[in-house]
Fold each of these.
Amino acid sequence: MPIYVDFEPIGRRGECPNGQSLLDCARQLGVELINLCGGHGSCGRCVVQVMAGVVSDPTPEEEKFLTPARLQADYRLACRTFPLTDCKVRVPPESLSTPQRTQVESEDYHLEVAPPVRAYRVSVPPPSLEDLRGDAERFRDVLSERHGLTVSTVDVQAFQALSTHLRTQDWTVQAVVRDGQEIVAVLPPEPRPLGLAVDLGTTKIAAYLLDLLSGKTLAARGMMNPQIAYGEDVIARITYAQQSPKQAEHLRGLVVAALNRAAAEMATQVGAKATHIVEAVLVGNTAMHHLFLGLPVGPLAQAPYVPVVTSALDVKARDLGMTIAPGAYIHLLPNIAGYVGADHVAALLATDIAHTGEATLLLDIGTNTEVCLAQRGRMTSLSCASGPAFEGAHISCGMRAASGAIEHLRLVGDRVEFQTIGDGPPVGMCGSGILDALAQLRRAGIVDRRGRMRTHPRVREGNT
Amino acid sequence: MPIYVDFEPIGRRGECPNGQSLLDCARQLGVELINLCGGHGSCGRCVVQVMAGVVSDPTPEEEKFLTPARLQADYRLACRTFPLTDCKVRVPPESLSTPQRTQVESEDYHLEVAPPVRAYRVSVPPPSLEDLRGDAERFRDVLSERHGLTVSTVDVQAFQALSTHLRTQDWTVQAVVRDGQEIVAVLPPEPRPLGLAVDLGTTKIAAYLLDLLSGKTLAARGMMNPQIAYGEDVIARITYAQQSPKQAEHLRGLVVAALNRAAAEMATQVGAKATHIVEAVLVGNTAMHHLFLGLPVGPLAQAPYVPVVTSALDVKARDLGMTIAPGAYIHLLPNIAGYVGADHVAALLATDIAHTGEATLLLDIGTNTEVCLAQRGRMTSLSCASGPAFEGAHISCGMRAASGAIEHLRLVGDRVEFQTIGDGPPVGMCGSGILDALAQLRRAGIVDRRGRMRTHPRVREGNT
């Protein structure tokens, strides 16, 4: 019986002939694992994690390169590991020779910069025998006298920073005030306040670092959603999370860690610190939204599929484990329904579809695709699963947009011209390649308008 | 040269003759360490922690009873440990055969029960195909329709509990609402909402569990402030905390752990859970207040000795590591100055001294004593160190109120009648005993009104 191996988050699946190692199998499927020693167990670089299935026992080479804790978590060297049953194998980003491609580019979109937080430069008189007010009170009095602000709340961690910054910054600090009411952060006087915007997709995460004064995007990061190792679609994630609170928290932790890493890297890239990020906004479908907040996802999987919460939320970053400014808020846009989430609301807002005069259709294609039909201010939205088709699942040569995937394709006469990611030999076809292929087949008259293959000299009858 | 050993938090100090173990020395000073084996290193019960000074190396018996981590933290068996220099030794409560006495009794005080939180029993219609609102929205709508409440905020952890409780409690839960604005907790329908009141003293901590509906005190706990091992007075604590943020956080953690333990024990005692505590109030002197909040204490030790903050604060329990209801607030009364803190404000409020007509003096005697003179609504407060005198420090036979301390004393003719804590043989004198002794000496005319000893047949000239 043939053994099948599924490499995630790349999305390459295929047969592993008997006696082949996971590394051999990966090579055959075009998954470019790093291996410096040629697969002899002596470089320790082809680390993978076995998520499901039975494999051969760890070898002495693996015990040399992997800590007991990692071995316990089923980390293995691909070159020393032989599948004994069908397997699901996670490839950590650091084991890939070419990183997976995630799109973060977009059309520029004009909007007014009006963040909920505003930074004030505040110079406070030092205490003296004639002025024995507490640091916080002197600080608040200046905010009130000079800036006309009556803040009602000071975040406890902002308090913790206040006295230290005042005394080391010659009694001048930046107060970051949210909605004119709460001091969410106290920063040294120089750094510009930063914002973080996150699109938390089922498959991919896009994160952007913004200058909150100019509104400019300073840096962007695309990455795979690390939860993918626990299920490719939202239903699989919900099922995994429902098995125990610990598993739900594990999924949550994976995303939080990825976002913290992205925030820190982007901040470093622009010469700042993650703690200068004083406001964040995050969108995702309802399941991603709930998992990120630690909300139960059970109701999403049971009729009538209601969310725990649909309203917009403001949650302290630290309450979610985010290591930006600890008093900063993360704003979450409202959800519409169990399967039409905050990411769709973001799409509605960004396209301003409510104010287009004519009947207009909005498509947000992803692992889940959300569709909105708008006409004369009335909007009707729905969603459907589409990831499997667009991301290569259930397509015999399908794969995600990793190295070797055909991402563009053209029929030129009898020839097929194509471009692969990384320009290497083709190993499969990703979503954009599949769309290109369909469009080209349609244009060439090989596929009819109902999607059916016509008889054509180049079309062979197969067994599918 | 004689070696002196100081046993804390008991407060017993004395000479340790050469060749005596810490256990021998403790016995001689009346510190009642548990030892079941008679000091032969075979019961492992006389565990102490060496905080300062040099002692003999650990023995094989100690390696048997103490983990490497505990040995690393200078935990030792008193019977196997011989001091080589002057030492300071901490006696953990579990190593004492009779617990130290801390007073939590007080006169009853009538007040109106008006906590900032109120619990509402809310029955929510289950979702259906005709009612696809999110759980939170259906819940909020009922709160608004039935109870006229428009809550603006729902704590994120209350959200996390909401859906689960609704589905397991037949769609009826208790919403705990603070100031009519924020849902701080969602509880099952039965448990009564509880409150926690804490007096965080430099030496002792008193904690009370209250029924927030009736205002009744359900349970009380007195305990030593575990920070005492790092300094007996506030100046010593501030010095220790200032040496590094890690040390400050360590002091904070000690108190938080003690309070969490007390809260859990009291809740268990009344058949409840610590997570049913939905509001807390804490007072302490300014240094204890700042250390508990993780605020810098440096400014308190430098002229002009200003606090970081004097205003009253409401801080989320979870932000301080308190394991009561995670969305609950801890209310901290305002501080007045660097050395007149929130505990004094509590004393002013409890005695209502502002409204006494005549000139009135309020004394709050503790490790620090705060004094307030009130006349015609004008109040003048100050503080002074008094712990050393009242708690036995710098008194040759002084000690804290532990087993064997003379706590009451009377002169009857030529005889001295006294009572010790635990009714055992006397080993020293604690604060109340010292006060009794002074009062009796004054009454007998042996001490004059200026505090001077008169010549008296029973008074001997000594060398002090």
Amino acid sequence: MTRVNRTEDRAVITVDAHARAWSPKTARARFRDGLAGPTAGVAAGHTQANLIAVPADWAYDMLLFCQRNPRPCPVLDVTDAGSAATVLAEGADLRTDLPRYRVWQDGELVDEPTDVRAYWRDDLVSFLLGCSFTFEWALARAGVPIRHVEQGRNVPMYVTGRECRPAGRLRGPMVVSMRPVPPEHLGTAIRESSLLPAVHGGPVHCGDPAGLGIGDLGRPDFGEPVTFADGDIPVFWACGVTPQAAVMASRPPFAITHAPGRMFLTDARDEQYRLAGID
Amino acid sequence: MTRVNRTEDRAVITVDAHARAWSPKTARARFRDGLAGPTAGVAAGHTQANLIAVPADWAYDMLLFCQRNPRPCPVLDVTDAGSAATVLAEGADLRTDLPRYRVWQDGELVDEPTDVRAYWRDDLVSFLLGCSFTFEWALARAGVPIRHVEQGRNVPMYVTGRECRPAGRLRGPMVVSMRPVPPEHLGTAIRESSLLPAVHGGPVHCGDPAGLGIGDLGRPDFGEPVTFADGDIPVFWACGVTPQAAVMASRPPFAITHAPGRMFLTDARDEQYRLAGID
């Protein structure tokens, strides 16, 4: 499996107060104008989304893969073929409004541009998937310490030994993110994330990483290692990088995704995804 | 729009204690052997599902329609083309194990057999969708009176003036079920159903039916009228009949669905759909 570039993968967690207060529309305009930085903390309170665009010929397999693996692949919107518009963000252009993209051919990363108009095809169907930034907001609001944020690091992510349920030509391992949680906050962390089933929901595993086939928490496959405080329990959530792992494993002829940490800013508010999703 | 046969639509709510205690496997065997009655209350505590099978050529439109309208169309499983098996029920055969089916050609109801082996096609993709029986169980357990059950009637369902978000060639109105709820139970009813986002979730509307474009609660489009107790508030939930309404409106060349009130018995337990769905 292709390993992503560690340097590029690093998302600086803190943004200046200015970017935190941006509207999603302002944030998209800045990214469209060329700003290429990470989006963690930008337009705080608004929902960020993973992007994966595949040719229409692969769209049914991708949608079915997401339906069969809703924890790692919670679908927030699917565009019509060729359209760069989404109901989740008025006036947005998915080809230009993300800070940085990844372009994949036959499962290999071939480019990381800040604009994909030159790569766009009329048969591309874009999937916007929920992102853990939404449940981190809920955890933080409930007083759960978020260690990787405290430490200014990108969340560590691991390829597990657990295979997703395949769909057509798409298969691949589940990828998880891991957060150390103090035992006294474990109940709150599980409850608050479970109340957000549209954005990964509750954890898929707690405790011994061997239960997911993960060898060494100090060597994540994506992101950065995080330091545990005494007594912290490792808690694992299904991760939106999973469809990228499926692209690497299944090698569709073409795909475009966001670059790690460079998400799509929607107009939706995180709060709208509590329990029900947006009507 | 085709109106379904009122007599056939009537589901007797009470089943004998024997059928209530059946395992899902026993229930499926009885239906396979020709028992054609309604399934309300059968194998209590186990999840029942709406069935809609369409040709593979229409499967992407149907899956996208469900993704775009998750309240009325909560997908529990999608089969591979031609397969009559589902991960939700070991050893089940979707062609024989429901009590009664409806066969549709060009959006018109053409047959209501108890077995669809003669109609089966190798390109059929089956969708199993969540059913309100699951959240009724949760409401009843929390002490909310279920008026139509008390009155031994099928739940009243209404075609609303609210259009679903279309997907490809599929479009149609949202269909809702309505339950009168005493005001002192309204909070519980909303909370308990909201905790089941995988099976319709919380209500889409409360109070004046005109808000949904419904004229007369005494004249439901499917099911039977229910009597209100003094002070009861009408509460409306998105309904799994919606995809049948989409079939009637969009006229795919062929489709098979369950007959109203004659659902598919899965091995899953209702409790497993609280918040997270089945992993």
